[in-house]
Amino acid sequence: MRRKLTPRGRERRDQLMECGARLFAERGYHPTSVADVVAALGVGKGVFYWYFASKEELLTELLKASNHDLRKRQQQAIGEEADPVRRIELGIRASLAWFAEHREYFAIIQFAATDETFAPVLARNREIAIADTIRHLKDGIVDGRIADRDPALLAHAIHGVVAELTRHSLVEGNLPLDEVADLCVAFCLEGLAG
Questions:
Q1: CB-CB contact of 152 with 130 (8 Å)
Q2: Are residues 170 and 119 in the same domain?
């Protein structure tokens, strides 16, 4: 349901999304109801249904918006950097920083990965993220800075390392961001023998 929103309408929609993200992360998706979201904001259900057709649509929009925000953070960090290896490093660091600041979204993404309802949006988000990384990898391969291997497999490997270190070291382990980012970058760019 796409409506042309006023600035106040966008603000209210953002409030619903932020509240929904917080509650889904704290309580879980299934235990959290639309009534819980609106009660936490002190508004009626009609306000919720003006912006979202269902709780499922709210989570879908959260997944899309979080991916968009993460990509924006990565693009800002990379800027006009010409060196493809440095672009990969900056993208990794930006990703880890974003997840450190938005831990609730990591929990939401982890849940969504267990529910087939959200598989299409997660697949699309992953496809976009992998394509972004492949572009930098291909540039590095052409420049001779990265070994000539399958860029799609390399991209998946990088994303796997970032996701696992986010889960294990940032979300569960609460380790310092810089320490995790340094390790992740070193492993992804230099490997075990680097």
A1: yes
A2: yes
CATH classification at residue 121: 1.10.357.10
Q: Which two tokens stand for residue 123?
A: 């697949």
CB 24 within 8 A of CB 61: no
Cα dist from 47 to 12, 17, 107, whole Å: 9, 12, 26
Which pTM does this prediction carry?
0.91
Rounded distance between C-alpha atoms, residue 168 and residue 126, angstroms: 20
Both 149 and 83 in one domain: the answer is yes
User: Based on the structure, what is the number of domains in the chain?
Assistant: 2
| Backbone φ, ψ for residue 32 (5° rounding) | -90, 125
- Give 152-193 pLDDT, tens digit per residue: 999 999 999 999 999 999 999 999 999 999 999 999 999 887
The DSSP-derived string for 87-149 is: HHHHHHHHHHHHHHH-HHHHHHHHHHTT-GGGHHHHHHHHHHHHHHHHHHHHHHHHTTSS-SS
